[in-house]
Write a structure and sequence with these properties.
The chain is α/β, with parallel strands linked by helices. It folds into two domains: 199 residues, Rossmann fold; 97 residues, UDP-galactose 4-epimerase, domain 1, CATH 3.90.25.10. It contains twelve helices and eleven strands. The strands form three sheets. It has a seven-stranded parallel sheet with strand order 3-2-1-4-5-6-10, sandwiched between helices. Strand 2, helix 2 and strand 3 form a beta-alpha-beta unit. The longest helix has 22 residues. The site of nicotinamide-adenine-dinucleotide (NAD) has 28 residues, from helix 1, helix 5, strand 5 and strand 7. The site of nicotinamide-adenine-dinucleotide has 28 residues, from helix 1, helix 5, strand 5 and strand 7.
Length: 326
């Protein structure tokens, strides 16, 4: 199986590569071509499993995207490249170029090359305010950000390509994802910073209110979901894009969970208008029963289970990078 990832150098990509390798039969490991604007330095990729190679790809460059996908001829594409919500609001033209034009370029390159299957990573940012709680898959979509608008359009493009029989697209609407890596400029980053700065400095000033509540998910569940929806037989899928739910804590509940694992940590709140407005426009919780019914999706981590797994990983990461106590 030849698998190509776009935007592979980001928060999800590295963990997804590890998950794909872990799931594959030992006798038949996948060939993974990981692409990003710039491949990470060799020191970072030195520990990659065999079969993983890195190539540079700017998905905004239509000719380069076509040429690379035609050269690799993957059986499966995970399209991760994007500009996330907070950065997208400061650079909406860039967000449009990468998320909208880039997605179109990748889909067209897949169609032209005959790539059979593509997995799309959408987001709760497709929703606008005032929706039922938990929010079902099918409601009117009125996103308030360029990020959300381009993700909603990407979902529709995926549906179109699937309906035309050009590329079998499937995808998920992720909640905010938390992992022991670097956040990518999303509005849910406050949750990860509570852990990272909590461990590193014993304190963190969150850019949101204490009562902010959005859906979150631990990365091991997130990358497992991507692998599972990629493997799901098409005749089991009644939709193209599926809500995924993890857990939906208030910000001060996350702080309490961090405090359990990092005694004495001081979390304070100084809401920043731009990111708070984005957070307030998102649903508090998602209804993911369609994913459960169609392809057996079930999250394994709740908030405290994530904390117990994550804090030792962050300690190890900070010790490795020498950032502890910085
Ligand atoms: N992390 C989350 O909480 C979350 C939540 C919902 C959806 N998603 C979606 O999942 C996908 C991956 O997210 P992530 O958290 O890894 O994001 P990230 O920002 O960490 O990584 C995105 C990657 O895309 C790359 N990229 C940017 N512009 C590019 C371009 N023109 N061409 C090629 N690559 C480019 C970046 O270099 C980066 O490595 C995105 O599509 C994102 O919208 C993420």
């Amino acid at each position: 199986m030849r698998i190509l990832l776009t935007g592979a150098g980001g928060q999800i990509g590295r963990d997804l590569i590890a998950e794909l390798v872990r799931r594959a039969p030992a006798a038949d490991p996948p060939t993974i071509v990981a692409t990003d604007l710039r491949p990470p330095p060799a020191a970072v990729t030195a520990d990659d499993p065999p079969g993983v190679s890195w190539r540079g790809l700017d998905v905004v460059d239509e000719a380069a995207t076509r040429a690379l996908i035609a050269d690799v001829r993957p059986d499966l594409v995970f399209h991760l490249a994007a500009i996330l919500s907070a950065k997208g609001e400061t650079e909406p033209q860039l967000a449009y170029a990468v998320n909208q034009t880039g997605t179109w370029n990748v889909l067209e390159a897949c169609r032209a090359t005959g790539v059979p299957r593509l997995v799309f990573t959408s987001s709760i940012a497709v929703y606008g305010p005032g929706l039922p709680d938990p929010t079902p898959d099918d409601v009117p979509l009125h996103p308030t950000t360029m990020y959300g608008a381009t993700k909603a359009a990407g979902e529709l493009l995926c549906e179109y390509y699937t309906r035309r029989g050009w590329v079998d697209c499937r995808g998920v609407r992720f909640p905010g994802l938390i992992s022991a890596g670097l956040p990518g400029g999303g509005s849910s980053d406050y949750a990860l910073f509570m852990y990272v700065d909590g461990v590193r400095r014993g304190a963190y000033e969150a850019f949101c209110r204490a009562d902010t509540r959005i859906p979150l998910m631990y990365m091991p569940d997130g990358v497992r979901a991507l692998a599972e929806i990629a493997e799901a037989p098409r005749d089991r899928l009644r939709r193209c894009i599926y809500n995924l739910a993890g857990f939906s804590p208030r910000a001060d509940e996350i702080a309490a969970s961090v405090g359990r694992a990092v005694p004495g940590v001081a979390i304070t709140y100084a809401p920043e208008p731009l990111r708070q407005a984005i957070l307030d426009s998102w649903p508090s919780a998602l209804d993911d029963r369609a994913a459960a019914t169609d392809w057996g999706w079930r999250a394994r981590f709740d908030l405290d289970a994530m904390t117990d797994d994550l804090v030792p990983r962050i300690r190890a990461l900070l010790a490795r990078t020498g950032a502890a106590g910085a």
